[in-house]
Amino acid sequence: MPKAQETILEIDLKALKHNFEYLKSKLNNGTNFLAVVKAFAYGNDAEEIARYLQDLDIDYFAVAYANEGAALRKAGVTKPILVLHTLATNFDVILDNCLEPNLYNAKILDEFIAFAEAENQKEYPVHIKFNTGLNRLGFWETDVAYVVSKLIASKAIKVKSLFSHLAASEDLSERDFTLAQIERFKIISRNFSKALGYEPLLHMSNTSGVLNYPEAHFDMVRCGIGLYGYGNAQKESANLKPIASLKTIISQIHKIEKGESVGYNRAFKSEALFTKTATLPIGHADGISRIYGNGKGFVTINGKQAPIIGNVCMDMIMVNVTDIDCEEGDEVIVFNGNTTSAETLAEGAGTISYELITGISQRVKRVVLK
């Protein structure tokens, strides 16, 4: 594998395949698999990843917003795409790209029905979300009769699936809460399907739900973080392979004498007779936020950890390489699947892998390993 010559994000499709097959092995035969590829496939490359998963015979995709789905269609993705956060201003984009909207409250339901009827649609596929405890998006259990009455009154749309979202499936100390969510969703689903007269697909499980609550797999599961190599628990992460490696290089090496400072606001001051620092071409505009500064984050150079010193700059970070044999142009590992995972780096700064990987800027060059 060639060494990095600039800041790059390497994406390993073989690792993606491994994760997909591992997660799928946990499902009952006939359970559909929906891949969540929102936010550039969790900071990677949504188009490359969706095309690859489509070739692996994935059943469904999900994005957060309509424009993300439109980009996948333009890239040649033909599988069904669920838009998780439907906004009325994007109805045209949804229809033009054969996307399937999530309708989660009375306003968006009424507006989409009116739009579909005005466009002379017949049984356009939609998804209905119910809130069972996350309290983010979704109808309430008491809304079942209202929603069904609206659906029966219009021939313009038809429910493809009914779904909810687990709030704490990765946290086994919240098992009672999660089981209550699952039971609530079962009751809603029974009442909804009985009143509607047909049975849409049911789905509730995210990655941790797949791994921890097989009773909640229903007709389909929605996997995001697990596909990208993180299982929200050390035990499960060991079974997965992070697909992304963020790499950069050393641009310049400095020798800082005692009392000299490094970076903005003089946040680091050398206390040693001399400190050797390396400047790297990556900063908070690339996704390495300021929380990783001042020793909370580190990179790996020639197999050794180099702590980030001072404040993270927009385009650069400085690291302490006093005890590391290195030179300008050497490759630097920010995170990968071998030496330091994004999970480890994020935890050290008091955050989660999701925030780190989804924050990698689009100006960072993506290199797809096929």
TrEMBL record:
Its EC number is 5.1.1.1. Its cofactor is pyridoxal 5'-phosphate. InterPro entries: Ala_racemase, Ala_racemase/Decarboxylase_C, Ala_racemase_C, Ala_racemase_N, PLP-binding_barrel. SUPFAM superfamilies: Alanine racemase C-terminal domain-like, PLP-binding barrel. The modification N6-(pyridoxal phosphate)lysine is found at residue 38. Pfam families: Ala_racemase_C (PF00842), Ala_racemase_N (PF01168). The keyword Amino-acid biosynthesis does not apply. The active site is at residues 38, 264. It is an enzyme of class 5 (isomerase). It catalyses: L-alanine = D-alanine. Pathway: Amino-acid biosynthesis; D-alanine biosynthesis; D-alanine from L-alanine: step 1/1. One of its GO terms (molecular function) is alanine racemase activity. Keywords: Isomerase, Pyridoxal phosphate. One of its GO terms (biological process) is D-alanine biosynthetic process. Residues 243-369 form the Alanine racemase C-terminal domain. Substrate binds at residues 136, 314. One of its GO terms (cellular component) is cytosol. It comes from the Bacteria. Belongs to the alanine racemase family. Catalyzes the interconversion of L-alanine and D-alanine. May also act on other amino acids. This is Alanine racemase. It comes from Hyunsoonleella jejuensis.
